[in-house]
Amino acid sequence: MLFGVSELESAMQRAADAAVEDVLGVTITTLIDNSLAKPGLGSVWGLSFHLKVHYAGRDDIILFDLGGSPHVFRHNVQALGLDLAETRAVVISHLHTDHYGALETAMEHISSKDCITYLPIGNEDVEDTITGADGRFVIADISEVVGSGISTTSALGAKSLKEQGLVINTAEKGIVLLTGCAHPGLDRLASKAQKIFPDRPFHAILGGFHINTREEGTEIAQKLQKMDVHFVAPCHCTGKAAKQALRENFDDESYWEIGTGSVITIR
To answer: What is the tally of structural domains in the chain?
Structure first.
C-alpha cells in the first residue's frame, strides 16, 4: 500500500511502474561499507548502494539502504559527486540502524516528489521521518514493482526481523540481486528473486551475506552455484573466512571485491 498520496495518484504511479521497458544495465556504487575501496571516503559499519539504472534515453537513481551514519553518508555523497535530487526510490532492506540511520539526511538530498521509500515492515518513527520530509512510503510485505524490470523480493524472515532484497532484471545479463544482511538466508532471497523473474539467468548477488566461517562460505557457494549464480560480491556482514571460501569456490573472475567507493557496471 502506498502512503501519502490519493488512491488515484497511487494507481497512476503503479501503472507507470508497470510499463514494459528493458533495463539496459545498472551501475552500482558502494556508497557505504565497513571496508574501504577508495581513499578519501568515510567507512563505517553499515551498507548503502547507489544505483544508476540505465534505460533507453534515461537513467533512474535508486538508493538501496543508507548506512547508519548521517555524517559519513553526507560526506561520501559529496566526495563521490553523486546527485540524489531526482532519486526515484529508496529501498530499506531491514530496520537495523546501520541500514537506515541516514534516512533523514538522505531525504534532505532528495527533491523529487515522485520518490517512494520501500520499507519491509511498518515503523512509526521511520514513517514519520519520511512523511515529515513530504515523502511517500510503501510497506513492501509482498513483492513491489519499483520500476520497469525492478522489484523488491517481499519481506521475508521472522516477524521481529523482516528483510527484503532488491531484484533488477537486466536485458542482456539477467538477474542482479542486492541484499542488506540476508538475515532470512541468502539462498532464500535468491530463490525468491528467481521466482519474480522466472527463466532468466542469474547474473550476480551483491551485499551482506551474513555468514562468517569457511564452512558457511563453502555451503552458500555450493547452493548459489546450483542456482547458476555467475558472480558474487559479498561485503558488510560477511566474515573474512567466509569471503575467502566464496572466492575459492567462485574463482577470482567470478568473485568481485567491493567496499566504500567501488563502482561496478553491469550491462
So the answer is: 1
Give the domain extent around 236. Answer: 2-266
Please report, for the domain that includes residue 178, its CATH number: 3.60.15.10
pLDDT of residue 20: 74
Q: Measure CA of the first residue to CA of the last residue in the chain; give whole Å.
A: 32
pLDDT of residue 2: 56
State pTM to two decimals: 0.93
The per-residue DSSP string of 197-253 comes to STT--EEEEEEE----SHHHHHHHHHHHHHTT--EEEEETT--HHHHHHHHHHHHHH
96: phi > 0 → left, psi -120 to 50 → alpha, else beta; which?
A: beta
pLDDT at 22 over 70: yes
Look at the chain and count its residues.
267
DSSP for 16-75, please give it: HHTS---B-EEEEEEEE-SSBSSTTS---SS-EEEEEEEETTEEEEEEE---S-HHHHHH
